[in-house]
Design brief:
heterodimer; A: alpha/beta; Peroxisomal Thiolase, Chain A, domain 1; five-stranded mixed sheet; B: 84 residues
Chain lengths: 322, 84
């Protein structure tokens, strides 16, 4: 038996992001539940979020982001041989979103699967995509984080409806240009803890997302900065050399607490939650694609990604900007 | 850990200053965290985490909601054996 021949290193070729058009402000929510703009800003740091229209499916959102990343990569659709969609909010368990997205984007017969690591999903998908290219089971992978959390929100629950939102972000992963080039995707540091499974959950198909805010806040502000540092160590990168830190956009106060404890004073810290809300697996690629679009980052910049969420699950890796 | 009440109060004041930006000298035993110091539930979690690092006493979330004043926290820490 022969083994496939892979690439020594992998890199990101391009990003793409998509947010639904409809903006929901804190004042809009204050009309629906007992809350206020001031309260939401101070507790979670969100000013507004995007919510998908009634006719906009998860596959629509995922395809929009995936299509942008594919176009930005300059690759033809037939160069993609694997599509991975990180999501925890599909309308139904089958068919998966990835195969539908691939067909819509003109990608013929790729490997295609959905991956659920909740809000940690994008970093899990990035790791599995990178590993597939290194192992030679895929050459170019379209990785998408896409969520339509609005359909799993109880719009009368003021503790959750102010936080979660819809959106998608994507990246094209491929081999390094030359075998000797430094890798553009560092080793993933990932893990989980099922003891905390009851802190963020959706009980069944007729239920909505439930979160124990204080418990999640305590875990996120104490357990994650060591994971972030480990990802830097695994990649051989000094946190002081990071151009940016992009943690999952869960809550501005969690973001600020982790950033403070990470010790990377030069790094720009993504705060897209302010206008995007918490979009689960879409939050990191959305922030990445916005920063790339607005030229906030330069080619070769080192960026630390840190994703975490229900499960509890988490993953972190260092990447370089294409 | 043997510590006087005064040392404990000083340590707690430093934590509140760091977490919530409330000057340490305003952190006196009679103060209510919510009503007097304008500290919300998430900041209380951060204070509890920092208190664990400083005093070696865990304050779980279900206990945290009962600690309404600075004195309540001092009593809790003393109950857990921090003070001499």
């Amino acid at each position: 038996m022969r083994l496939s021949e892979g690439s020594p290193g992998t890199r990101i070729l391009a990003f793409g992001g998509y947010q639904p058009a409809k903006v929901v402000t804190n004042d809009d929510l204050a009309q629906m539940v007992d809350t206020s703009d001031e309260w939401i800003r101070s507790r979670v740091g969100i000013e507004s979020r995007r919510i998908a229209g009634p006719d906009e499916s998860l596959a629509d959102i995922a395809s929009a982001a995936g299509g942008k990343a594919l176009a930005a990569s300059g690759l033809s659709p037939d160069a993609i041989d694997l599509v991975v969609v990180a999501t925890c909010t599909p309308e139904s368990p089958i068919p998966n979103i990835a195969a539908t997205v691939a067909t819509r984007l003109g990608i013929a017969a790729p490997g295609a699967y959905d991956l659920n690591a909740a809000c940690a999903g994008f970093c899990y998908a990035m790791a599995t995509a990178s590993d597939a290219v290194r192992a030679g089971t895929a050459r170019h992978v379209l990785v998408i984080g896409a969520e339509k959390l609005s359909q799993w929100i109880d719009w009368t629950d003021r503790s959750t409806c102010i936080i979660f939102a819809d959106g998608a972000g994507a990246a094209v992963v491929g081999p390094v240009a030359e075998p000797d080039d430094p890798p553009g995707i560092g080793p993933v540091v990932w893990g989980s803890d099922g003891n905390l499974a009851d802190k963020i959950y959706i009980a069944d198909r007729n239920s909505f997302i439930v979160q124990e805010g204080q418990a999640v806040f305590r875990w996120a502000t104490t357990a994650l900065h060591p994971i972030a540092r480990k990802a830097c160590e695994a990649a051989g990168v000094d946190p002081a050399d990071l151009a940016a830190f992009i943690p999952h956009q869960a809550n501005l106060r969690i973001i600020e607490a982790i950033a403070r404890k990470l010790g990377a004073p030069q790094a720009k810290v993504a705060t897209d939650i302010v206008t995007a809300g918490n979009t689960s697996s879409a939050s990191i690629p959305l922030a990445l694609s916005r920063m790339a679009e607005q030229n906030e980052l330069g080619s070769g910049d080192l960026v630390l990604l840190l994703a975490f969420g229900a499960g509890i699950s988490y993953a972190a890796q260092v990447i370089t900007i294409p | 850990m043997a510590m006087t009440d005064q040392e404990m109060l000083k340590g707690l004041g430093e934590i509140v200053d760091e977490v919530a930006g409330v000057p340490a000298d305003q952190v006196t035993p009679d103060k209510s965290f919510v009503d007097d110091l304008d500290i919300d539930s998430l900041s209380m979690v951060e204070i509890a985490v920092a208190a664990q690092d400083k005093f070696g006493v865990e304050i779980p979330d279900d206990q945290l909601k009962n600690l309404k004043t600075v004195q309540d926290v001092l009593d809790y820490l003393r109950g857990a054996g921090v003070s001499a």
